[in-house]
Amino acid sequence: MAESMNGLHRSHRCTEVSSQDIGETVTVMGWVQKRRNLGALIFIDLRDRSGILQVVFDENSVGKEGFEKAGTLRSEYVIAVTGKVQQRAAAVNENLKTGDIEVIAEQIRILSEAETPPFPIEENSQTKDEVRLKYRYLDLRRPDIQKNLMLRSKVIYLMREFMMKEGFLEIETPILCKSTPEGARDYLVPSRVHPGNFYALPQSPQLYKQLLMCSGYDRYFQIAKCFRDEDLRADRQPEFTQADMELSFVDIDDVLDVNERLLKYIFKEAIGVDVQIPLQRMPWQEAMDRFGSDKPDTRFGMELHDVSEVVKGCGFGVFTGALEQGGSVRGINAKGQGSMPRKKIDKLVEFAKGYGAKGLAYLSINEDGTYKSSFAKFMTEDELKALVDALDGEAGDLLLFAADKNKIVWNVLGALRLEIAKELDLLDPNQYNFLWVTEFPLLEWSDEENRYMAMHHPFTMPMEEDWENVDTDPGSVRAKAYDIVLNGTELGGGSVRIHQDDIQEKMFEVLGFTKESAHEQFGFLLDAFKYGVPPHAGLAYGVDRMVMHMVHADSIRDVIAFPKVKDASCLMTEAPGKVDEKQLEELQLKIEEE
Amino acid sequence: MAESMNGLHRSHRCTEVSSQDIGETVTVMGWVQKRRNLGALIFIDLRDRSGILQVVFDENSVGKEGFEKAGTLRSEYVIAVTGKVQQRAAAVNENLKTGDIEVIAEQIRILSEAETPPFPIEENSQTKDEVRLKYRYLDLRRPDIQKNLMLRSKVIYLMREFMMKEGFLEIETPILCKSTPEGARDYLVPSRVHPGNFYALPQSPQLYKQLLMCSGYDRYFQIAKCFRDEDLRADRQPEFTQADMELSFVDIDDVLDVNERLLKYIFKEAIGVDVQIPLQRMPWQEAMDRFGSDKPDTRFGMELHDVSEVVKGCGFGVFTGALEQGGSVRGINAKGQGSMPRKKIDKLVEFAKGYGAKGLAYLSINEDGTYKSSFAKFMTEDELKALVDALDGEAGDLLLFAADKNKIVWNVLGALRLEIAKELDLLDPNQYNFLWVTEFPLLEWSDEENRYMAMHHPFTMPMEEDWENVDTDPGSVRAKAYDIVLNGTELGGGSVRIHQDDIQEKMFEVLGFTKESAHEQFGFLLDAFKYGVPPHAGLAYGVDRMVMHMVHADSIRDVIAFPKVKDASCLMTEAPGKVDEKQLEELQLKIEEE
After folding, report:
1. Residue of B395, B384, B376 whose CA lies nearest to B336
2. Contact at CB, A217 and B149, closer than 8 angstroms
3. What is the distance between the alpha carbons of residues A61 and A58, in angstroms, rounded to a whole number?
């Protein structure tokens, strides 16, 4: 039988009680973590979101009825206890914040009984994901998840606090939007008032925030829900949270500056990490050349080396063939891994193939200075020496080479570098290496579409000094775009936007738009630009991802209260579900059975 | 031709420049509000979100080229000006914050030219709503709308600031939810991965926030987007914003207390209004009896009086008939309106009929003490005198009476009271009268469903002292529910929730649920309640409505950046719209043509 709260007032959360309160009477409420009967005493670990407090029931203090009640307590019962705080009679429990005290119960109410939960409420649960997510309301009781969500709440508040101080306005943009044909797949919402017509859930507030700049709001931000009906991948959520901003009357330095200060502030206040600013800025080309990635993890070296010049004209056809195709040969040096067994190397080769490599050439330098290599026989001693020197190879090192189109070589070696670092435990989770990747290519050639595509979006500003080459060498034009990278993860990105008619028109031309097709897709934005548009730029962060990094979560589901699983369903509510025929009739929709 | 921002840095927003800066060089950027040529000088009113600043172009200062450029400026051009601040040469403009200064331009860049906008950018626009909303990006430039949205941004930040200090966690709940059969109509989102199945957009995070209490988060809040596909009404938006909270281990007083302090804080900080707390609490019955409304506007009197006892047995069949049907006769006294012309009274009668009245009885007290009345002839002099006395009628007053079922009488007189107050200009917009309406009926009889329905929702806690009557007199049971009312508007509402199995089970029984049907609808919440649920309570505010009150907006559209119109469409983006056949195929949906 559940008792009522009538007349009861909680005085403290569990771990708000401390040795300062010894001798005081407190009222605490929470869940029974566990009960132990010890001689004539009953001990309860009482849990709330703040942590654990020990409560002791002694019949002399709590009375006969109270003591009997305490005897019925089981895990997850919700109780309220009033009692005196005292020094803990037994040894101090160093693992608990309240380990030096306990509360001697004088009154107890059972606010709610509880059935035995399907899995224990404890940190680092070994319970299967499916069960945890079905009973998410119990899973959410686990202290580690609670810590994650409490930190998340703090982080988004810190963001807002900083942004408000910097003169940003939080402005809500619609969730019921217009569907646009380009980009990822939209979630659609059928209209009842306009049957046969649909809203789309926003993939980002991009167009709205640019409109707000046209409207003179000057500095906008929003913690915005975004939606993408993308193909399934383990750690992707159909809805995700973006910290979105846009600024008027700025150039790239202004945006980077305010964001560096934002990051410094929230990482310090949320998790006590000192971010040194200004952050490093690395042009995209350098990031690819050195790390094979536009989101380099700079916590360790093992950088890529372009050895195309060195192997040019060597006898190894795989190398020279790649060069002839306009590609490159590059390598990394896995220091001290020269004695890696063949089996493990084979695994790396397989790994590389997963990233598009046709193979992986390796060379290990034995302690006696001789080489063991998959391709040594095709090359002269001098050629091998030059190759080893190019990678600063020393006795005991393992050199790995990929030869292919640049894109594949970068991709393969970038991934390999990370894989080896993981295996060798080179990734310190407590080191936070931020950097900006800048000067992205404006355009990307698409074989599929047989045309250049915008790497970011069609409103991204080209770099002034490159723009004159847009006709002769479109691929060489760099953009005023930037990504913020943390430990190999892209936390966010953005760009300066085009605000000049002539550049925008040319950009659409390069992207193969006609005047009509540009207008069809971006009509209201282009219209807005006609009436006086300020120079503007913006950036958006993936909030889920940022919080994941802060709490070292393995899964995005550990930082979202009610996540969906791989097939975009919710195991707890069983959404999506069937709806009434009447609802579909109102929408004038019919389900087509396959 | 648009010039670039290269090397330019804004030093101030327009009205951040003040007489303190006289002699200093500043760089300001914004939109040209207007240009005047005056002799050898050109004057520009430069506008940004902060306000207006006067810029003067003198060829001696800005040079020939700059002066010529200034001569080409037209409304809504975006420019950057660098120049010296000086005391205004002409008379001070008292209407402007910067009315005592001006900037003598030394450099100008035209950042963007502008076509002539379809309507002038000015406060209190007389432009048709349809045009304003089509060009919403221009409408949003109007200083009054900008002030609204800036205040809105501030209000939601103040809310968050307060809530964080009070130990609330902001936790995001899903937008892609499960459709539930009861309540208002859901917006549906077809699932591509599970064809034939649908998500629903949330009407509120109600179930999620109760689950979070089960999960031990103790204090939750969220500024949440909610959605209802309701029938069309002028000032209703398909998506709206709710400030939503839930608290564990509390009773009604705790919830009211924290919310009173919240309201006091935000009204003071946002608009400088002192809210005296604790607020008045008025039981629902009293609100209906005195004001004919569960959201009484207490800025003026003209209260309802129940005269059923007085007219019992009188000769006026309309009165006695209503009493015989179990109804009542009530009146209001429109002080000093005794000389209201018959035509105007007839209008009030028509107005009353619009609220369900069959008619409206009136009696005006002439200055000589005689009566003019629609029903005097049916009553004795003594009866009339008693009636007048019951309403404290004096010479020059107009008494209006309704006789019907209570619900209709309240409805009619409540509306009439407001209507007359509006006409007499009794509603001071700068007076903020808050009150709690409490002790709502738990259940409401539905003729349509032929059963009792939950007035709030099925989880609302009954008042302990009434609960024993639930079988004998269900209608008399009051709930631990509360609404916060401001000047006749319901700003928000909530309730203490049932956390006891036995009460919840009984409640479902009273509402006509079977065990199965209750489980079908609320399964996961009921499951969650099995594993230990804390006493909890919550409240939600309508943010749009609250901000409307703060800025005295006439329309909800004036406090939402991108609102929809009555048919739930967006005139700017033309959402909702058609989508590709391919998209529908992927969803296995077909549109049924009518």
Report:
1. B395
2. yes
3. 5
Fold of B300-423: Gyrase A; domain 2 (3.30.1360)
Alpha-carbon gap, residue A303 to A413, rounded angstroms: 9
Q: Are A167 and A218 in contact (CB under 8 A)?
A: yes
Strand segments, DSSP code E, in B118-203 are 169-170, 188-190, 198-200
**Residue B30 main-chain phi, psi, to 5 deg:** 170, -160
Instruction: State whether B576 and A191 contact (CB < 8 Å).
Output: yes
**Residue B594 in tokens:** 């009518």
Q: In sequence order, what are the residues at sequence separation of 6 or more whose Cβ sits closer than 8 angstroms to the Cβ of residue A226?
A: A202, A203, A204, A205, A239, A240, A241, A242
Is B519 annotated to bind ligand? no
The position carrying tokens 């019949």 is A59
Chain B residues near residue A177 by CB distance under 8 angstroms? 573, 575
Sequential DSSP letters for A95-156: TSTTTTEEEEEEEEEEEE-BPPPSS---SS--S-HHHHHHTHHHHTTSHHHHHHHHHHHHHH
Phi, psi of B64 (to 5 degrees): -65, -50
Q: Which fold would CATH assign to domain A123-274+534-594?
A: BirA Bifunctional Protein; domain 2 (3.30.930)
Read off the pTM: 0.95
Q: Superfamily for B14-112?
A: Nucleic acid-binding proteins (2.40.50.140)
Give the count of Cβ contacts less than 8 A between chain A and B.
378
Q: Which of residues 195-214 of A touch B (CB under 8 A)?
A: 195-201, 208, 211-212, 214
Structure-token pair, residue A163? 């942004």
Q: Is the dihedral of CA B384, B388, B389, B390 positive or negative?
A: positive
Write the pLDDT tens digit of every residue in B20-61: 999 999 999 999 999 999 989 999 999 999 999 999 999 999
Task: Count the neighbouring beta carbons within 10 Å of the beta carbon of residue A228.
Answer: 19
Window 468-507 of A, Cβ < 8 Å to B: 499-502
Backbone Cα Rg of chain A: 30
Can you tell me the ipTM of this complex?
Answer: 0.95
Question: Which pLDDT value is given to residue B378?
Answer: 92
> Nearest CA to CA, how far is A518 from chain B (Å)?
15
Element (H, E) at B352: helix B342-354
Is A187–B188 a contact, with Cβ atoms under 8 angstroms apart? no
The pLDDT tens digits of the residues spanning B350-402 come to 999 999 999 999 999 999 889 999 899 999 999 999 999 999 999 999 999 99
CB contact at 8 A, B234 and B126: no
3-state secondary structure A365-417: ECCCCCEEECCHHHCCHHHHHHHHHHCCCCCCCEEEEEEECHHHHHHHHHHHH
DSSP element (H, E) containing A484: strand A481-486
List chain A residues with CB under 8 Å of B123. none
DSSP assignment of A257-292: HHHHHHHHHHHHHHH-PPPPSSPEEEEHHHHHHHHS
Residues B186, A274: Cα–Cα separation, whole Å:
47
Structure tokens at B108: 């100008």
Query: Any chain B CB within 8 A of the CB of A191?
Result: yes
| Residue among A174, A254, A263 nearest A484 (CA) | A263
DSSP B202: -
> Is the Cβ–Cβ distance between B140 and A215 less than 8 Å?
yes
Contact, B141 vs B32, CB < 8 A? no
Q: By the CB < 8 Å criterion, does B307 face chain A? A: no
Q: Is B545 annotated as a binding residue?
A: yes
Nearest-CA residue of chain A relative to B217? A49
Domain boundaries, chain A: 14-112, 123-274+534-594, 300-423
Assess contact for A78 and A112: CB atoms under 8 A.
yes
3-state secondary structure B473-506: CHHHCEECEEEEEECCEEEEEEEEECCCHHHHHH
Residue B580 marked in a binding site: no
